[in-house]
Amino acid sequence: MMTTQMMGKVEDAKSYMINSKSSRVEMYVAGKRFEIPKEKLANYPGTLLGKMLPKLCKEKGGDISFNRPVEIFKAIHTYYLTDKLHMPLNVCPGQFAEELEFWGVGSELLEPCCLYRFLSFRQQEETSKRFRKNIPTDNLVTSGGYSCRQRLWCIIDNRESSVPAKIYLGFILTFVLLSLASLSLSTVQSLQRKMTICEARDLLFNDNDYDDEVKEYFDNNVDCSKDADIAMMSFLGEYARYSDADFDEKMDKINRTNPHEVRYFAALKLKKKLKQVKIPDKLTRLQVFDRIDLIVHAVFTVDLILRLLACPSIIMYYKSLLNISDSIVLICGIVGFVLEKNLINFTYETGDLDILIYFQQLRVFRLLRIFQHVAAIKVLAFCFKENFKEILVLLLFLFVGVNFFANFLYFVETDTMKSIPTAWWWGLITMTTVGYGDIYPTSALGRIIGACCAISGVIVLALVIPIFVNNFLALYELAHLLGKEKTGKLKPITLQALPTKHQDKGI
Predict the structure, then answer these.
(1) Cα separation of 367 and 183, whole Å?
(2) Which of 210, 258, 275, 323 is most enclosed, with most CB atoms within 10 A?
(3) What pLDDT is attached to residue 452?
(4) Which residues, including other chains, have CB under 8 Å from residue 137's CB and lie 6 or more apart?
(5) Residue 348 has pLDDT above 50, yes or no
């Protein structure tokens, strides 16, 4: 609905149109002649040409010219003639928005076929601006104008692409991978060893009461380099297969036939006691993994000290969850290493201090801390933040779908689904198209429900995931271009015109 002010402008424009001899307005845009009926311009008083209509009616044809892109004005010219605004395919949406603003035409007037492409571009531009603002691209730092502390911080925190920064990154990355390899390989049984007799002794006598004679034997007559089972078998010898009854019979025979063999009788009695000792059958880490962990802890301790000394602000440094987790992992690793060497029950038995071992699994986050300034990691974190609502929608759809299909299947498959939480597991695995096959429906109705669940999962993932992927790809390309522009690797392209046939002939 037009306001009173707009109606007045329309009436003024119509009066000029009536008083003018020509029914068309003649104008030039970038040297190209255009004609627009005056009654058309009079219907759009809010546009630039509608406001200039009185002047256009007074001036002679050709005296009004605009030095603007002609391709975009063709779309605006068509809008005046047909009342339909379209965006040319070969025009940048950003430039088209600028021209619409210049000519006073609102972008909301675009037809639906072009409005989606225009709005998508505007949304992408807003996202790119937030990306530039939230993620600085000052990765390249030169030594000029920077103190030694700032220079050291840029090298340690991988904030520049100089040779020292790359060397330090490779050095730390090597020890991170070595730390992860040591933690992982030490859990492989083929890379573990059996306890020595001394380790078995320490574990055996820890908080346990044994005969003093047995303790004295283990303390004074064991070779710590031997395996526990082998050491016991070598001492028992032929008596390893004896039972308690056999030992009693033999000792009774000695008392009756040769009561003066006190030394042999005592040895036999000790062997009987040792035969009753239950040697712990446990595996432990190879010593090479202990040495690797010692070196790794030393390197990361020095790295953390250098970071705390060189960082601009310790408070800002520990506002990062990656830095907090890295420090926790390092402290737990050092404390656990010390306790393992001093407390035998911490090494071989479970207890309250096992949380120190569990925190060692967070070593993998050191990789994220090292690569936190890499463009892909920055873009990924920004996309999770920007698409948080879409991710919540995806989780909501999965939650509803899992509960819906799981509850139905529980009442249909009473033999297979023992409980609704078990059906939840089946529903989640089915909707995410993983399909372990550990739980599956067997009846016809159950299979129909399973098929519907799988199809629903595919549809849900297909609707939401592309939004996240498209934003990631677009922002990753932007970060890549910004990085090249910052480092000076992005050079302008120079176009050279090829000589024509006439130029070849010297004409």
Answers:
(1) 15
(2) 323
(3) 93
(4) 479, 482, 483, 486
(5) yes
